[in-house]
Write a structure and sequence with these properties.
Elements: H1 2-20, H2 28-32, H3 75-84, E1 104-110, H4 112-115, H5 118-132, E2 137-143, H6 149-161, E3 166-168, H7 173-182, E4 187-190, E5 205-207, H8 212-219, E6 227-231, H9 235-248, E7 252-257, H10 266-269, E8 279-283, H11 286-298, E9 305-308, H12 316-320, E10 329-333, H13 340-348, H14 357-374, E11 383-385, E12 388-390, E13 394-398, E14 403-405
Parallel strand pairs: 1-2, 1-3, 3-4, 4-5, 6-7, 6-8, 8-9, 9-10
Antiparallel strand pairs: 10-13, 11-12, 13-14
Length: about 425
């Protein structure tokens, strides 16, 4: 049966990517830290990561229409239904006249050239939730390619013309502003944007982005009076550093930007007394954070604690570092409960809901749509306050083989 699952998973991923034309994958480091920065990104193997080139789209390429009747069945039967949905993706459905549980129309608006792999990730999250909810649905991908105003408006007009009721839009702040200013008539969920990143929005816009500043506030409770900042110069990194300076400026004794992973760290770490017994914030993706942690060990520099936001909550950290490197590595986490069957369906489609906050956010957004507009019971526990998902924060320790909640495991916020 396990072998069957492997073939099913491979088949599904190939079919989804081929059908949607969403094969442009973002580098892993971009996913970990700052998904929308256009800066060069470094890999684990050779410390360089060339930008992926987009494949030209076929003139005959079709967008995705799905019409599936899900059932409360076993995971094996779920897998069989997922494998077979390729045959049903071109069914032409009449426009719906009423919103009800049995007739759900979801549009995914994606600027594929901007968000790369998140196009697949969010698409799979939507499909997973729709299969989980045992409902009939139509799902279509609208690729604007970029976030120019003309491109987004054109796709929004197509979405309206086809009668879609709900829009999932993984955008950057630039694209979000355009959609907010031109789309007062559709319910739009933005899994990539936190409300605090946008000046204002109408009640039809729901935000799902992680609140990194809240995570920093919680992490500061674990810092002593000697704070060090390691940043990588990205937009997200600079935002985190600025917030730490606002909250604990008098405690900061050292700050350093590490923009190139080829840099010799000896001059930064060796004989640097400011790092000893300090609370070091690693506002960087996993490769750089892991390298700093290992170099501290190599040069026998013992910090008070290493601190990071959601950026480094990933099992790759456990592979790139030794336990002695991460013994006092504390990470803020806002990913918690997901229904087991929903999680299994996500895994079958290649998602990582336990560690990818985009997958998690997209699922909560779908949950909100079903609960508030279709009368279903909520699956997730996160509240939506003033049109923003309210994520709790819990501090996790990077243990010997897994992440472990600190103390009694209660939420810090």
């Amino acid at each position: 049966m396990r072998i069957l699952w492997v073939f099913l998973i491979l088949g599904v991923l190939i079919q989804v990517q081929a059908k949607n034309g969403l094969t442009n994958m973002a580098p892993a480091e971009m996913i970990m830290m700052d998904i929308f920065d256009d800066e060069d990104v470094e890999s684990v193997e050779d410390f360089t990561m060339p930008q992926n080139s987009s494949k030209p789209e076929s003139k005959n390429q079709k967008t995705t229409d799905l019409f599936i009747k899900s059932t409360n069945t076993t995971l094996e039967e779920d897998a069989e239904r997922i494998e077979s949905y390729q045959e049903q993706t071109s069914i032409d459905l009449s426009p719906y006249t009423n919103i009800n549980k049995g007739n759900v129309k979801i549009a995914l608006l994606v600027p594929k050239k901007v968000i790369g792999a998140y196009a697949n990730s969010v698409s799979n999250s939507i499909i997973s939730y729709l299969l989980f909810k045992d409902t009939q649905f139509q799902f279509e991908v609208f690729d604007s390619r970029d976030e120019e105003e003309s491109s987004l408006i054109q796709k929004l007009e197509e979405i309206r013309a086809k009668g879609y009721q709900f829009v999932i839009a993984p955008l950057t702040a630039k694209g979000a502003e355009i959609v907010i200013n031109t789309t007062p008539d559709l319910l739009v969920f933005m899994p990539t944007i936190n409300k605090h990143e946008i000046g204002g929005a109408g009640g039809n816009i729901i935000f799902g982005g992680i609140d990194y500043k809240r995570q920093i506030d919680v992490l500061l409770n674990y810092a002593n009076d000697k704070v060090v900042l390691f940043n990588d110069g990205s937009r997200r990194s600079n935002e985190l550093a600025d917030h730490i300076k606002e909250q604990a400026f008098e405690r900061i004794v050292y700050a350093k930007d590490i923009k190139n992973i080829k840099t010799d760290f000896s001059g930064v770490i060796k004989r640097n007394s400011k790092l000893k017994k300090a609370s070091i914030f690693l506002n960087m993706p996993i490769v750089k954070s892991s390298l700093v942690a290992s170099q501290l060990t190599q040069h026998e520099v013992k910090p008070h604690v290493l601190l990071s936001t959601q950026v480094n909550y990933n099992p790759l950290l456990l592979k790139l570092t030794q336990f002695k490197d991460r013994e006092f590595f504390y990470i803020a986490n806002s990913i918690f409960y997901m229904d087991k069957r929903l999680k299994d369906i996500n895994l079958l489609l290649g998602n990582s809901p336990d560690y990818s906050w985009i997958d998690y956010s997209a699922s909560i957004g779908m949950d909100y749509i079903f609960a508030n507009n279709l009368g279903d019971m909520r699956v997730f526990e996160e509240d939506i306050y003033q049109n923003q998902i309210e994520y709790k924060v819990r501090i996790e320790k990077a243990g010997s083989s897994s992440f472990e909640p600190l103390g009694d495991g209660k939420f810090d916020y």
